Description:
By secondary structure, this protein is α+β, with helices and mostly antiparallel strands. The chain is built from 5 helices and 18 strands. InterPro entries: ClpP/crotonase-like_dom_sf.
Amino acid sequence: MLGYVLLLNMVTLLFDGSVATVQRSFSPFVNPAGIAISPGLEFSYLGSVHGDDTSHTIGLSLGTIGFGTFITGDSKNYILTGGAPIKDWLYLGSGYRFGETKGYTIGATIKPHRFLSLGFVGDNVDDRFLLKSGIGIRPGTDRITLTFDLNYDIENDSSDYLAGLRIEPFDGIFIEGGGNKDEWKAGISVSFGKFGVGGKYGKIDETESYDAGIVLSNERYPTFMKPKPSFAELGMRGSYPEFERSGFLFEKIDAPFYRLLSRIEELSKNDACKGVVLELKRTKMRMSQWEEMRNALLDFKTKGKKIYVYSTYYGLGSLYLSSVADSIFLHPSGEVWIP
């Protein structure tokens, strides 16, 4: 049990591994729901030296399935997890633990706001129960993340906490630190896009600890390395509601139409994006939406970027939108409707 708790702290302190914010290959060890937030293929390795003890942690995510192993001395522990998005703000996951320790885990991640994330996990480890909760806050910027996790051991009626801070002063450069009254760690991690490395130094119960890790991913992380300029493809199909959910802290900006506008704004700020190829697939929007979309593309174009539009059918709205494009393409058997 002690080794398992130490593992949680190492993963949380080295990487962005709060119960509330963990994703991809780190999620099996911390919160199985995190694997459903940003599915993809990813491999991670963490090597740790704590006094005379060494350990190795390996994580793997494949879509919404995760696998992890924790090896220290002759002890080997494994976990197999799976997750699913229930809503675009709610993710659930579960896992089975086997090896030296056995048990199961269930978790949930709630993201009611782009700057707020909540996580909850229930762990059964060798018939002992642990409850974990966490909160992640980005105070008005994506460059700073504050986390706070609380762990409660039901059998021993004991609890501990872990506070963390993650700062991204430049794209792909992360300065991180965290701890509690008994331990602390601080260090840096660097992203090269689909490959990242990180290292930290700290103390646990007055014993020095060293950690180093790598990440290989098919999904690109933010990086200081500028990719080769290219065109982005953006497909528009069906309708785009402006209001998708409501309630406390739930904002309309997460509705499909506003996600579309946000995507165009992101591309306009991306120096690696030369332009956009927009494919209209029987898109149904109100005239006010076509106009707002056109204004967003006009702003996109002022950044010196190109716009190309392709469709098999052009109606009044799509023709109005396409009037901002550098070139308009129609399928040979396509149609154009002008009232």
